[in-house]
Structure formats: C-alpha cells, structure tokens
Amino acid sequence: MLTGNPHAFDNGTVAGNFLYQMMQMDLFAKSGIRVYYAGDLDPEGILIAQKLSQYYKGEFHYWHMETADYEKCRSEEVISPKRMKILERITDGRLKPVVDRIEEYGTAVYQEMLVEEM
Questions:
Q1: Integer Cα distance of 95 and 48 in angstroms
Q2: CB 49 within 8 A of CB 95
Q3: I want to staple 63 with a disulfide (CB 3.0 to 4.6 A). Which of 4, 36, 56, 99 is the partner?
Q4: What is the pLDDT of residue 12?
C-alpha cells in the first residue's frame, strides 16, 4: 500500500496483516491521505483489495492491478477450482477486467513479479 505519491514507497507501505492495514487506513482517512494499493492478482489478493477499497473512507486507488500487469507477469501456477470460486465475490467494476483474465487463464500474478513495474 502506498500513500500520496504513486511512484515512491513511503512510510505508509504495509504488507501482510489485514487487521493492521485496516487500523492504519483509519489513520490515513482521518488525515485525508490518498491510498494506492497493490496486491497479488490471485483470488485472495483481489478479494483483499476489494475489501480494503470498501473499508477505506478516503481516496483509494488500485495500483498495478490492471489487465496489462496481469498479462506481463502471469505465473505458471494454476489456481484450483475452489480458489477460483472466490472470484464470484468480486463486485468492484475496477477489478472486473483483471478478474476476467484470471478466469480466462486460471493462473496468478504475485506482487514480487511486479516489482520492476512499480
């Protein structure tokens, strides 16, 4: 997660712990901070991104969660049918194009694969 400048990591960078992300986002919202969020392009990562976007009360942008990012960095890891069902819960129109690609190819992209793009 980035705050403010989408081209540079800052002290707002948080990885992993969803509860910690939510607590930090409350502080960001109170301060009027714009959030840029990048996560894994797999069912769980897309769901987390959607939940954070729904939760955050301030300006929230998905960052490097587009179909172009997915196409550039697709892994060979096949996503199981059980995990693919998670994509049915995605309702945010901004995420639908990448969800369509994940459903089409059945593979994931992980943040580590996008580092050079960021």
A1: 11
A2: yes
A3: 36
A4: 47
Which strands form 60-62's sheet, in the order they lie side by side? 2-3, 35-37, 60-62
Amino acid in the structure at residue 31: S
CB distance 79 to 43 below 8 Å = yes
Which pTM was predicted? 0.77
Over residues 75-110, the pLDDT tens digits come to: 898 999 999 999 999 999 999 999 999 999 999 988
CA end-to-end distance (rounded Å), the chain: 12
